[in-house]
Design goal:
By secondary structure, the chain is mainly alpha-helical. The chain is built from 6 helices and no strands.
Length: 192
């Protein structure tokens, strides 16, 4: 009985001590402000779907930012320029968050072989074509490509909603579904 009690007390004591860091940004944070493992918020509260979501969404977002960055100088439509600015503004911080999650989880930030054109990614040929365009031709190609790109992101986010377990990743997936679905509607209207 004493042995069984000691087997329970040691892990509970370790969790309690780990949660008692001082000087952080609040309960459950260490001195540097990083979230620590506690009984209510385990650091390992993620699964393989969460890792895949972050690994695939990072290069997906990077490509969208590259496409959106071209709009500042190549688009003729002020609406396209504004939309591209919103895309850049929303997706850059998400890349930083996802990169942080992967590092915390000890996972690679590379998607490996999991990324393919079915995820809405543009091919090198598509990106080269967009790079050669300007004015109304750019606007049209950008909108058509970004609709496809967003559809891929929404599909990946829906997979995360259904199979992920990390609350922050699932919340980001919800935001992606909502915001990018709305942007798809806007882009279709802009295409007329």
């Amino acid at each position: 009985m004493k042995r069984a009690c000691s087997l329970l007390i040691v892990p509970v004591a370790a969790l309690t001590l780990a949660a008692c860091g001082g000087g952080g940004e609040g309960p459950g944070h260490d001195m540097s402000g990083h979230r620590m493992a506690t009984a209510s918020a385990p650091a390992a509260g993620h699964n393989a779907q969460d890792v895949m979501f972050a690994q695939m969404m990072i290069p997906h977002h990077r490509q969208a930012i590259t496409m959106a960055g071209q709009a500042a100088t190549k688009a003729s439509s002020p609406e396209v320029k504004r939309l591209a600015g919103r895309i850049e503004h929303a997706q850059a911080p998400e890349i930083q968050k996802m990169t942080g999650w992967l590092r915390t989880w000890g996972a690679s930030t590379s998607p490996g072989d999991g990324m393919h054109m079915g995820d809405g990614m543009m091919s090198d040929q598509d990106m080269k074509k967009l790079d050669t365009l300007s004015g109304k031709a750019f606007d049209k190609a950008f909108l058509q490509m970004m609709i496809k790109h967003h559809q891929g992101a929404v599909a990946m986010a829906r997979s995360e909603q259904a199979r992920g377990s990390f609350p922050e990743a699932k919340a980001m997936a919800n935001d992606i579904v909502t915001s990018q679905s709305a942007e798809i509607t806007t882009m279709r209207k802009l295409l007329g």
